[in-house]
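seq:
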Amino acid sequence: MINDKLIIVDNLSKLYSLDVKDGSILWSKNHKTPFNSQIKIFKKHFFTIDSNNTFICYSIKNGREIWSYETEKPFVNSTKKLSIIIKDDLVIFNNSIGDITGLNIQSGALEWQISTQDTESFIELIDFKTSDLVVNEDSIFFSNNKNNFYSVDFATGSINWKQKVDSFIKPTIIGNLIFTISEDGYFFIIEKKNGNIIRINNIFKNFKKSKKNTIYPTGFILNHKEVFISTSKGKLFTMNLENGNINNIIKIDNNKISRPWIKNNNMYLIKDNSILKLN
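struct:
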């Protein structure tokens, strides 16, 4: 949202700009393929990625395409929304086959590109998922479900370090520490500068083996005392950050719940088509 305008995309490859005050459509544009990413706004432009792995810069004023950059087309569409980050004169994004690309934000010219997925296996590419990209100081941090966690130099795209962590959940960075959680429920604390793993805790350790195979984390948030972890089976775990012990498990639903978020000292979750508020 910018200047009382809300930019949205639908599932049928169409862009809209809405007036926030009354919901009226200011303009709409058709695109040749559906979109599959976050929307990022920078000054008078906004950015998105379509299902062909093409990165596009549009005008907020009228939806006109300013420039675009094509990366390699996927075999199948990604099941996870692709990620975009902006810093200084660079816009960085990932595509559905594991490439991370840095472009000049004004012209769309290529600054650098790296591949984080070297397989050509169709089966492996079908279920490939990358976490959201996170920029901190001069580095980008992200992981994927092929047991790779990366620290990449923002300006050059060179790899600072790589660690074996199997996760497509957005990491959190506080000071010199990175916090993330793997698909099978292991909570990691990693040193930001060198990638050394400081601690690992198994949040599902008290679950029977049959249940471990059907539950996975969907996101987490933390404060200075606790970690709140949402899951695919509608359970919200509260973990003591200091010792890794599970303090509480709250059943929210039987199905997947979203990553929690905090606003005005209240926690919110999304389940099905509902938003839940927790004190």
